[in-house]
Amino acid sequence: MLDRILLINDDGIEAPGLAILEQIAAELAREIWVVAPEHDQSGVSHAVSLHHPIRATPRGPRRWAVTGTPGDCVVMGLSHLMRGSPPELLLSGVNRGANLGIETVFSGTVGGAMTGMMLGIPSIALSQAWTNREAVRWETAATLGPRTIQKLINIGWSKDTCLSVNFPDHPADEAGPLTLARQGAGSVEGMDVEPRTDPRGFTYYWVSFRRGDRNQGPESDVAALNAGRVVVTPLRYDRTDEDAYAMLARSLPR
Q: How many folded domains does the chain comprise?
């Protein structure tokens, strides 16, 4: 059993997925710290607050609400609140909804885990897929989470990598095995802006993803999750496109 784990998320400190994550962590560590956003921060990726102050409010023993992003929560936890007694593991989630393909670039859940990795802590992002938003199968993540995380800890992974785990929208006893997968293309085809009018007659705008059926490529996270498996994808900061690098290298100095 680990000595201590830091928990963060992007859905906010009152989110049901964070309560599930606390249940999971209780089976893995003696001491649990929660440093989570005061409000929903979905879609903020790796953002940190460099141009305005943030506040951290105690919400119980080793539990803090932060007026900032998941990245801010990681920095506050590791560089301030837990300074001198760092966690052995950082868990981010459990996100309401899968994080697959290009959406991992936007995800605050994944962004928080990658910030933890950047600061030297082994980090895992956890997400629960759903078909019905009002009936998320949290019990699947709660049941499978501890053994999934323990298995990954036993295997180990690079210090320059964080892991993204997605639980399928199936009962736990019907879920397939933990499966390694590559980041696929995902379902995002573009983005839309919808103008609306508020009760005072002023215009505001709602930004959303436009989705479609895309070719996911071999061994994709999307295909594995659609097959009902628990999916793990290793992610890193280096996004260098090797094919483009090789092409440009023929004309540009290195």
A: 1
